[in-house]
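Q: Predict the assembly, please.
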Amino acid sequence: MTQTSDLAFDRIAGVRKTPLEEFYASGHRTCQGCESALVMRQFAKASGPRTVVTGSTGCMYVANTSYMTTPWVVPWMHTQLGAAGPSAIGMAAGLRALMRKGRIAQERINVISFCGDLGGGDMGLSGISGALQSPYDLLIILYDNESAANTDIQATGLTTYGAQTTFTPPGKVHRVMQRRWKKNVAGMLAVGHPTCRYVATACSAYPPLDFLNKVRKALAVGGPTFIHTFDPCPKGWDYHPSYSHELGELGIKCGIFPLYEIVDGRVSYTYDPKKKGRIPVREYLEKQGRFAHLIDEDVAYIQRRVDAMWEEWEIPGVAPLKGGLRPA
Amino acid sequence: MARRLLQGNEAVLLGALRAGATYYAGYPISPSTEILMRASVHAADHPEFRFLQAEDEIASANAIIGASLAGAKSFTATSGPGFSLMQEAIGYAHKVGVPCVFVDVQRVGPATGMPTMPGQGDILQSRYGSSGDYTSLVFYPSSVVECYRYAVEAFNAAEESLSPVVLLTDAFIAHLNEVVDLDAIEVEVKERTLPALASGQTRLFTGVLVYADGEPATADADEYLRQYEEAKARRLTIAERYAFHEYGWNTEAETLLIAYGITRRICQPLASHFALWRPVRIWPVLERELREVAARHRNIVVVEGNDGQYAGVVERVLRRDVARVPLLGGRMSLEAVREGLARLGLLAPEAVGPAGAAR
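A: Predicted assembly structure:
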């Protein structure tokens, strides 16, 4: 593992050095304890005033722009579900064309596109893949609260195994209806796009400032970049809103959501369980109502899968290939 | 099952199950989501019923086509933007001849539009949404009971015509709760006749034009016409068996209202003033029935939740101008209908007022 902290970028060195200006201000209609709103606030803060934002349909669209009110201080555009990647390409290309024609000043304008786990990890995956092959400077942020949260908590391809959602209710015959293992979106995009220079996973709750600095680093590296955030959601995960940060931290520490960044193909772990250890996934699962129906056997299964990810994968948390090359 | 309070979306699902559906694939979109949700609940208790929450509407539409070819009666439900995404798959199902059902719970579009408000803007999309020429069968119920009944009929029509059938509803019909007794509704279920994909024969399905032996016929106009005419004739013949419509109210009145789906319900308090003709089978248009009814009335007004989509069709069939009362932006109310009729001079202005019986 190579450390990539030597990359030059405007690092926020401490909580007190965090910019005070808000570009995602108060006045939104997200739920109490919403970590995805914090993702919006933090990336806007890290990116600063010379930023344009586009976002595909999802709770961060609906809750942030209802009734012609908005917390966005920077320009923002809604795009269709699944179009986070293409709309970012369009925006970046439009800005480049205007600059080339001299219609607007030559300057760095950050293009940031966000999408939810349904809009990005399921429907919009091909569009993000296209964007990561584009020649433009753009950052795509997938805010992952593991459900379609604005349409009443439906399961997505990124919902944790076993979770109860409105589409995966425990039944009399089948206890576990969410039987799909969470898609490894960041790893898939990093492995599949060798020219993409920066892919990371993050959590706005833990460690502090990590997500802000990853946004700064992605923008500094340039080209198309991608960050996948892990966002506890009180409504969808069924817990008291005051525990959002704690759940984010538990999710990272139990290793169910690996925290890393990949710069120019080099992986470095933000939270490295091999050095810092992992807590049992039970501590993370048992605090959420959406797992209340699971029995010991289910929890043990999830633990085994997480153990396998950290102990057997060639690149833990990133690429699920095992054991290197076999002789032909 | 005794009398119970049932929602329109739920009735669609129960109708599909009554018709023998064993596969559902879908993607959440208001106001159709309850169908997906109820399907998932059903799947949790009934392992024989398979349920897929796909990554988008393109996947859902193609999944039900695959399931149908494999032998399962299958269906999906969506709303405007999702229905747009499904159009290519619907064209494929028409070309290949796949029996399956697409439920489109209409909202106000285009794009995200007004997701929780009712619209009827997909009338033409349900007919002409995919590319090329094909013959669509489309039904549009007006009540919870009808959601159940015509869901069954949609499956029957799909099985008989070997084509995808669209069941239109709207946000109001879908979220309407009415007391129904499903046991009291007699429905006949048409069984699957199409041999399943794994039935032992080697079979080839493709969206491209091919001869019976599988050789491409991509430059053979005669072969195209032969297949096209055959499919069209079959679907029109089958459609004759499903010529559902309603004619009534004050049939002595000078003015005939044409309304369907939720707008028919909205116009109900005007029953003493007007005659009503309601097509349940929206496509193919019930041309003969429409002409017979229209000949009895001096004025014809089409009341619909779009800017004249069906009115244009009626004008083409009747070859005469018809008046229009478009209910746009989700403003589907008796007041809006009264205002529209008063503007046309067909209802005294003093009759325009708060909801209730027409004065």
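The mean pLDDT of chain A is 93. The radius of gyration of chain A is 19 Å.
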